[in-house]
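Batch 3, record 17
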Amino acid sequence: MSTAVGYAAVAGQVVLVGAGAPVVTGWMRQVRARLEGRAGAGVLQPWRDARKLLRKEPITPVGTGPAFRTAPALLVATTAVAAALVPLLSTDTPVSSHADLILVVALIALGTMALALAGLDTGTAFGGMGASREMTVAALVEPTILLSVFALSIPAGTTNIPAIVSGAAHEPARLASPAGLLATAALAVAVLAETGRIPVDNPSTHLELTMIHEAMVLEYAGPDLALVELGAQMRLTLLLGLLSSLFVPWGIATGSSWVALGVALVLFAAKICLLGAVLAAAEVFWAKVRLFRVPELLAGSFLLALLAVTASYFLSGVS
Amino acid sequence: MSVIPAALATATAMAGAGAVAGFVLPYRLRVPVVGVLTAGVGAAGGTAGLAATGGSRWAAGLPGLLPLAGAHVAVDALAGLFMAVAGAVVVAVAVYGIGYAAGHGSHGLGSRTAQAVLPPFALTLVLVPVAASVSTFLVLWELMALASLLLVLAEHRERASVRQAGVWYAVMTHLGLVLLLAGLALFAAKAGGETFAALRAGAPTVSPTVRGLVFVLVGLAFTSKAGAVPLHAWLPRAHPEAPSPVSALMSAAMVNLGVYGIVRTGIDLLGGGPAWWWLGLMAVGGASAVYGILQAAMASDLKRLLAYSTSENMGLVLIGVGASGLFTAYGNRPLAALALAAALLHVVNHAAFKALLFCAAGSVLRATGLLDLDRLGGLRSRMPATAGLFALAALGAVALPPGNGFISEWLLLQSLIHGLQVPGVAVAVVLPLSVALIALSAGIAAAAFVKALGVGFFARPRSDEAASAREASPLMIAGMGLLAAACVALALVPGLLGDGLDRAVSAVGLPGTGAVSGGGVRVRLADISASLSPLWVVAALAAALMVAAGLPRLYGRRRRRANARLWDCGGGAPTPRMAYTATSFAEPLQRVFDDVLAPEQDLNVTPVRESAYLVERVRFQRRVPDRIEHRLYEPVLRGLAGAGQAARRLAGGSVHLYLGYGFVGLVVLLLALAVGW
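Prediction for the assembled complex:
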């Protein structure tokens, strides 16, 4: 393995997720605006917002502590480390032996927890409300995600993501199997919940009482807010990328050639844009469900994941 | 070879000296002397344990020590692991305990009785795994139970609830002893000897029915000690009411011995068993994990929350032990070794972070006199060291990287995920469910500890007591620092434990896996592989954190942070009473798990006298009772009380009646003997 290509792939993944995430969000907003008959603010608007926020004065609300100040950076950091691990561009990187799916899930959960603690740290009613709801949803999403991981790792014999991805790329029948499809559906619902999209949470809501994610971060302003928004956008891009890597693995570089890496880059951008457009289009037609109906949705996805595991067990002929 | 007996003799001598010192010395001298001697007991016991995990073994018969059978002792790597854990916890908690008891008067933990009992309790924690015969084990086990009972009762003058907790604990621990006595006596009778060596040799000749009965009896007793449902009811009562260092010892060292007992008897002495034993154990473990952490998420008393979290973690360990037995039953020994190694690693990790959590809760109690999360808050600025240490331990407890709990849960999940190689429909159904239960408990644990940390330590003080809190004394911080160092070491270089863990697993006859070694955790079995490098994760996170924190500084124009009033959506600065409390934080989860928790609520609306439509007073009350206690224990207690009342009629006061009872009893006995012969 040529290490130069490997390092370039890891750096590319982190930079792509870091810098591309605002564009993905801008793209999704634009698609949504067009579908709703509006002109839209343009694909680059999240970047312009971030620039504006970064130039503002950093504010520390009186009565908050270190948890409030470090949470935005921690959110971005956990997502960036996860982005380095997930094989978005290449399965053959210097870190691919450490790229464990459970670790990636746990890193994302760590970011969630940091933000929830920051919400409680403000000592406002909205901050606590958001933290409480976010942790409830996160607790219920966890089983679905780990069961999907379980289902995916049965045919590969490991929870190492590059091994799962390259195995699926070489053996497409795994993905078309009932287990693969059920796991896709389950994981897709889990991703919607983890990233706070409709139908679980409405990212563009202005009504505090219905907020989950936004309520936690109400007190942030200026550069801190820029980091929180970047973290949330990176997490969306990363999880969409993870979905596409796991279930549409073609195009991801498995060797160590620059050409393959370039192709992977282009295909990754195309896949993310397509997924983002589909999600944005779906959000136009869906409504957010009531907070206390969310557990039912998550229970449904949990059932799908459980079916995926049992299907992959009984259909793989191990018994 | 001679390290172990010398260390154990030192520990015993120090415990004896400590007990005498506790009785004899005046209050001012008592606490530091007993503390130092207790720490010595822990250090000596821990040394013996470390020597054993390092590969030394020692066995001896001490015929004069106990009447009739004599005492038998033996130390192997499995015993050594539990001794080392108990020893390490004892050292740190003893240092903490000096600071905790000093300067708070000669009652409670500083009292003569409590200080005299503390060193022997520490000794029994270290010595229970040393026992190598049924009688020695039972004697040490009972001494441990009695010593801990006396310590739980230490603060009985201050709160009436302590006495109630003591009664619950005494009854349940002795029920456990009866079960244990019955099970082990039956085993010894059928196996033809009461030393562990004889039991091990005789186990294959015992009939499967008897073996199953022994496992069920012994398993119930040990899971009760480990705080697993349904026999957990003593734990959430005794742990919060005991003085904090005692809670730490009980929760981090004593409950482990329940796990030790199951591994020792189930896997080692009985030599494994059919699948139904282990499926039962996994069911108990899974139920404890989810039920325990759900109750923890609902609790607003900090120590009650931690106690239920112990129940959860022991549940996870039992899932691992059960999976290990299950894999052995189906003949996959490498996988069984992996599951057992994961379970034992979790025991070690849990001991480190739970002892630290209980000590930090004790510091909060000393500083504010409160454990009610709804009235705490804002402690991070008043007690920064305690808050930081609590946060570190909580990171371990939520099983997220870079905490230490993550590594053992990761290993446990790996062993379960790869368990599907084992054929059998039962396995195919049970393993995914176990994974889901572990995931659910991890998710709810995150909510529970975000609540404990965020509501208890962050935001602003919700009461005057919390607002005037003072940082814990230096000795308390030193004790907690030792535990924190252990947490960090376990999180960063779990490989230090690798060989000891392998030897402990080999001690019960499973092949060592080398799963934990050097810089990370690696799973390499026949056709599966996975690896995790905690150090690498921490380094990457630290680097990313620095970049992320530096990003706004590079680009931003203004670097000085300005203070501003909380915005709160334009609502103006909210008062602390408006902040979310622990109860409100847990409300959505409680609603989701309404059917499991069955909360009780009570709404009283008092209208004004003149008009039924104007409300004068509204009183709302909600309790989340322990439902298992409600449904399982109360009927039994009512039945017992009823039977007791009914039995009074048997004693009518007539001498003729009593003579008649004697006569009938004699006849029945003679008949039984005649038939039985």
